[in-house]
Design a protein that fits this description.
Residues 6-133 form the Exostosin GT47 domain. Helix content is 36%, strand content 12%. By secondary structure, it is α/β, with parallel strands linked by helices. A hairpin with an 8-residue loop joins strand 4 (76-78) and strand 5.
């Protein structure tokens, strides 16, 4: 395994395979061979790390292995042979992220509530960063992102593009107006 900083312990949630490992069977480039695949790489490396603990009571951090970028890349607003003829349904991914939050807060409430999610690490490795999830429940959490736009205001082109991508999610339409730390 990989050596972790002395004493650091990370608990990796075991999510239903449909939220991570089952998507790898789709064999999409975005899930294995692109910058967006960082969510998969980090998950796999944590499972090999000396920091891994199987006991959440020992954990300093809690990693949520939700492959939001891979999920987004497999759900389209309008299917087609490739961009710009098709586009991903970010609204569907936003709703799925809310489902993962609900799962963690339901089945692991003790660990989430202890620090209000501040010790929970979420990979959001797509261009949309943490806009792929609701702001309020995730605002305390640690977000692993692939770029660092921390703008408070979204430029008009961004809001227009977000509207094209929202699919059927009014929640995402509102979320994309807040900082995404992408």
């Amino acid at each position: 395994g990989h050596r972790a900083p002395e004493g650091l312990r990370v608990y990796v949630y075991e999510l239903p395979p449909r939220l991570n490992s089952a998507m790898l069977a789709l064999n999409m480039h975005q899930c294995r061979g692109s910058i967006y695949a960082a969510e998969v790489f980090v998950h796999e490396q944590l499972l090999l790390s000396t920091a891994l603990t199987l006991d959440p009571a020992e954990a300093d951090l809690f990693f949520v292995p939700w492959y939001s970028s891979c999920y987004m890349s497999s759900n389209f607003v309008k299917p087609g042979p490739g961009w710009p003829d098709n586009d991903v349904d970010i609204g569907k991914t936003y709703r799925a992220t809310q489902g993962v939050i609900d799962l963690i807060r339901g089945s692991h409430a003790r660990w989430w509530e202890a620090r209000m999610g501040a010790d929970h690490v979420w990979p959001f490795t797509s261009d949309w960063g943490s806009c792929l999830g609701p702001f309020a429940p995730l605002h305390n959490s640690i977000h692993l992102v692939t770029s660092g736009d921390v703008s408070e205001e979204r430029p008009p082109w961004y809001l227009s593009r977000a509207e094209e991508h929202m699919g059927s999610s009014p929640g995402f339409a509102e979320r994309c107006r807040l900082p995404c730390y992408q």
